[in-house]
Every structure is written in structure tokens, then in C-alpha cells.
Amino acid sequence: MAILNESNLSQIANGDELDDDEEEPGEVIESAPPLKVGEERSINDSGLKKKLIKRGVGWETPSFGDEVTGRKGLDMGIVTMKKGEVALFTLPSDIAYGNGGSDTVPLESVVQFEVELISWIMVVDVCKDGGIIKRIVGKGRNDNQPSELDEVLVKYQIMLSDGTVVAKAAEEGVEFCVKDGHLLPALTKAIRTMKVEEKVNLIVQPQYGFGDIGKVGEPLLSSIPPNASLNIDLQLVSMKRVIDVCGDSMVIKKILEEGENLSVAGEGAAVTVRYIAKLEDDTIFDKKGFDGEAPLDFITDEEQVVPGLDRAVATMKRREKALLTIRSKYGFGEAEVKKGHVLIPPSSTLFFEIEMVDFFKEKEPWELTMEDRLMEAGKKKEEGNVLYKSGKYQRAGKKYDKAVDYVGEDASFGDEQQKQVKVLRVHCWLNAAACSLKREDYKEAIKLCSKVLDVEFHNIKALYRRAQAYMRNDDLDLAELDIKKALEVDPDNREVKLLQKTLKQRQAESNQQDAKLYANMFPQPAKNLAVVTKKLKVDEEKSVGTKNVSVSSALDDEDENNAHPS
Fold this sequence. Notes:
Blueprint: E1 2-3, H1 8-12, H2 27-31, E2 40-42, E3 49-54, E4 67-70, H3 75-78, E5 86-91, E6 111-125, E7 132-138, E8 151-160, E9 165-168, E10 174-177, H4 185-191, E11 199-204, E12 230-240, E13 242-244, E14 251-257, E15 270-278, E16 284-288, E17 296-299, H5 307-313, E18 321-326, E19 337-339, E20 342-344, E21 350-360, H6 370-389, H7 393-406, H8 415-438, H9 442-455, H10 460-472, H11 476-489, H12 494-521, H13 526-542, H14 551-556, H15 560-563
């Protein structure tokens, strides 16, 4: 067994090292067409040549640092080989034994090595500091590696450097959450790099073991001397993926059984689920699809179930089984709720053992004809309008976004359809901007209004709503520009004039604050300060009557054309 070392060949060649910008060994071979049996090719600029004698199997090749089993050969050539491959490597004298030769090799001799790659063990420096060296002795399946939240089942045996066993997992293994760790830091760090069913051997230095203190013996662990290096045999038996659904640790999904395929339900899907719902004390408060109960059918993202259940189900695959933990924020909140004969206390955490029986997703835009895309876009817009009028601005915004997706620029609409598409996009962008204003997402409102103004530079609603957003973001100069443009289009527009008065008041207040700031920074004679103060008072008097003007109500509570979405 030999360790592949990137410097082996350069050591033969009098210690010359590769420059940082030189090609890695084997790069030419990997980028060139595969060698044919009997064909010879230079591997790199060093003069090393490779002639293929027998093809290998698979596609994997060793890396520097791996342990290889094979007949004698060279590292820079071996890293280009596949398992079972036989090759003849030719080294010119300057990179073989040099001009001096050796006891058995004459001066300035060209040397050839015939190499057969029998097998190799992949070796990984887990922490890149030599503290945990991992030798993969049994490959895992698939490419999934545990994340911090996942629960893993492992088997291990921990030994001192003299072979003394100090800890061993039970026959069925040990289960724990990755973020919580187990016994020593090295286990967690190594597990994060492993695949299910992978078997490894770890050489662990003290900083990732039990440090310079060691460990006093306990039921599952013998005494560990200070500064002890450890040898660990480790297997990742299985893992349960755990997902933070909402990103705030309030809805946690632990996957008990993976579902079918890669497709998840997503938003707006008609789903069929069955579940048993419990409280923390294991009291069952709801049950669907068990003991004669019919499964539950609902549409995701339509507020038909508690938010946490809605959001989690949207992430599930067909036949997936999971355990959901839903905190009160995404459950029933602070309310006391009665479900059947069970009274659910305020701030209760809910637990669902759930299975996705089936789901039906809406067709994607690319699956529809142009006529159907226009029809679906119109439906989504109307659904958004209904939600907007009900005060459900986030859901309304999603409907408008979906409508725009159906009539995206990737579609090939006819000339007459293009006119309808333009009108539909403009209305949806304007309506979505109104939703963003209601939700105080002013950056998004500005973005959406700007899209409208890119195609209709004189659109007064877009100018008005963007000016509102600029004002809420304290970008008063930009708001003033949009208001001026709007009044150029419609000089008598009442809503824009009211907004202009509010802007002037805000500008006066801002000027007054600036004057106080500069007065403190650069003290002035009392006479000059009085002049500045008098001027500010005059400006403020000019804007009298603009206080308490509700910008949003001036637009949203008027007639159908102004108050509600387009």
C-alpha cells in the first residue's frame, strides 16, 4: 500500500516544485479525448508519457493523498488511471533519476514503468489541518450528507493508538442530532462529510478528541489519557433529514420516509394528506385518514389549514412521511381553540405525524398554449384582486406574480395577444406594488413601479405609487421628481397634489432638522440663526393643512379605478 504524494515525481527530478499557475497532473488527460489501447500521449510539460495497455472500469481516479494498491508506478501518472487499468509510463532522464543515474540505472537513461492500478482507499483531511484523517474503507450510497439539523444513526469503535478499545456503540447503533454532537468533536465533523452506509477509519489528534485533559471513565467510555491520539472505526448507518421549513426554527420537519421522485407539492397544489395531530402531552386533537376517517384534501397557500401545516405540506413529496413540530406562531397562536372534545391551550406547540398521499399541481406556463396562458393569467389577476380587497396582501401579491409568470417574455404571443399581455403585465405590476406598499416593502414597490415605467413612462399610477415608496424610504428628492412627472401628465390630479403637499411638509421638517444639526456643528451669531428660523417658519406655514393626510387612503379608498387594484 502506497500513499500518493504530489511531490514524488518532483523529488525524482531534483526537488523542482510546480508553480501555482501550472496545470495539475492529469489535467491534459482529463480534458483530452480518452486514450485508446496502444495509444501514447504526454501527460504534461514535464515529458512524462502514458501509453494505455488495458482499459480500466468506471470513471473514478485516485487523488493525491489516497492510498493505492498496485504494482510499482508514479503518482503523477497514477492519478490519471481508473481501477484495473494497465499503462506504460515513460520518464525522460531529467525527471527520472537525473543525469547522475543510480546503482542500477545508467547515466541519462529514459525509464519506463508498467503500472496496474488494482485498488485505492480515498483519504481525506477533514479539517485541512491534519487533525482528522479519514480513510474511506466502504463507500456510501447517493450523495446526500448530513446537515446540522439532521438525525443520524451511527456505529463506532474508538481505540487508543495502542489498540485499546475505550468506547463502542451498541449493536443497533447510536442515534443523535448532528448539531448536538456525541462523545467527541471528531465524530460530528467526520459525519458531516459522510454518506449513508459509508464506513471510514479516522486518525484523530487530541484537539478533536479529548484534548490535553483526557477523560475520566464513565459507563459508555473508558478513561482516556491526556493528549491521546485516537483510532476510530465509524459507519453512518442511516439518517433522517430535518428541515427548518420557515427558516426561524418555528416549523421543523423530520423526514421519516423519503417520498417518490423529486417533485414536491409547492404552493397552490391540491393535496391529500393523512395525519395524527397531538399536543406536547400526547393528547390527540385531530386525526385524518386513520381509523375510518377520510384523508384531508386542501389547497396549499390558501389559508385552509394552520400556517405551519400549510407551509410544511408544500415541501413534501408523494408518499413522504414526516414528523412536524409547529410552534404556536404558525399554529393557533395565542388563542384557545377547541377541536372536537379537546381544548387546545394558548401558545401550544403542535405535532403532526403526516403522510403525503397525493397531490395535483397546476400546470406550469410552458405546458400551456398561448391562449391558455392568457386565460390563466387573467384568472390569477382576479384572484389577486379578491384577496387584495380582503386585506390579504401577501397572498394577493403572489397571485399577481403568478399571473405575470404566465405571460412572461419567454412566450411567443401573436400581435393581438401582445397588446393584451402588455396591459395584463402593467396591471399586475401596479397591483403587486400596491400590495408591497401595504406590507411596507417599499424596495419591492419601487422595483415593480419601475417595471411599469419602463414600458409606460407616463403611467401616473406607477409614478404616484413609486413616489409614495420613495417618501417612506426618505428618498424625498426622488419622490419630488416622480410627483413633478405625474403632474406634467395630469396637472389637476387630486391625489398627486395631496401627495405633493405631504412631501413639502416632509421636506420642511427635514430642512428644520438639518438646520438644527448644522447649528450645533457650526454655531452662528444669534441674528443669523433667527433669520434661518424665521425662513423655516414661513416654509412651514405654507404647508399648513397638509397634516394627517393619509397617502394610502387617498389612493386606495377612492373609486374602483383608484382605490383597488387594476
